[in-house]
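Protocol step 4 of 6: structure prediction from sequence.
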Amino acid sequence: MEMNETMQNSNLYLIRLGEISLKGLNRGFFEKKLKNNIKIKIHPYRSVLTREKGRFYLYVSKDCPDEHVFKVLRTTFGVVGFSKAVVCSKDWDDIVENAKKLIENEPFSDGTGTFKVESRRADKSYFMNSYQIECELGGVVLDRYPDMKVKVKNPDKELRIEIRDKVYMYTSPVSGPGGLPVGTAGKGLLLLSGGIDSPVAGWRMAKRGLKQDCLYFHAYPYTSEQALQKVKDLARIIAPYNQGTNLVVINFTECELWIKEHSKEEEHTLMMRACMMKAANAIAKQRDCKVLVTGEALGQVASQTLESMCFTNSMSEIPVLRPLVAMDKEEIISTAREIGTYETSILPYDDCCVIFSPKHPLVRPEVASEKRSYAEMGIDDLLAKAVAEAEVFEVPYTV
């Protein structure tokens, strides 16, 4: 009874699934995770989520603003597209009346541009075929908005109708982020700097279902408190896509100064990366993360040559994933703009990687030689101290 009451006093949103539908016998696992991820983010508003023939039907209490639902669905991986919909009986007069109400809202409400009506008749016994339904409802639109024009290919607006056990109608679908539900691929640790690349890397791995905590190395006073705040802001921006996260901050100042004092200048960046890998492995173990995620792209800077990456890998006991490895900078920037991290990433507060970069870094390191250099530094105790004193900040999934 409570479920039916919630559905009757709710707004309806149709959610379209993509890759999940191809999961065969495992589809139930992915659908259950997606349902849970959506309902967690819709809270505290009451909701009911049902499934039928590759669609989710999300009923949300009418006190929940459309804007909130749209933000939730736009940031939930596994959602390919969605639409606010109306549901009515198969009585034709009822369909027409509901269509009239629906087109009073956006995107039809300005009464301009081009449109088409698209019908899906799952109930083949219905007395009208799809073409007839489309013609009749097209007439309804033109009666209300005579300045609009019908355009079958690439119209500005769409009115869609599905004849199933009931009738569902909705206007132009909104695109979702696609991918797989976060949490279906396990958990990783994202090395989050204040730059453009690492937030995009975290977003791309979340799209493949990987839940992630974040790790930042802070070197105050060489890096400012504004630099730390920038990273917190970046974690906050990507948190809704990641179903929330935790930001671990390691005070790296003493380690940076030790590296500068006890290693060759051309090896400073390599030794810093080695220490970061060691520290990240320790944090990953604490937080039950099975992989590390970085924003490295092959050949982008000296520490991202093939040889340098091989050395970095050698310092980690768990896999290091680099989702941007084959992307160029323009592709990365385009994604950063799309997900809303770019403007924060370009704020002029440098991270520790920039502050301590040598003028002429070693770009073709030999793994065995650099591992000896790392051992000779004798930094492990200092690094363990930094890990033990790390701070953790919870970043909620608020949209």
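Step 5 (inspection) to follow. The chain has two domains: 2-175, 187-395.
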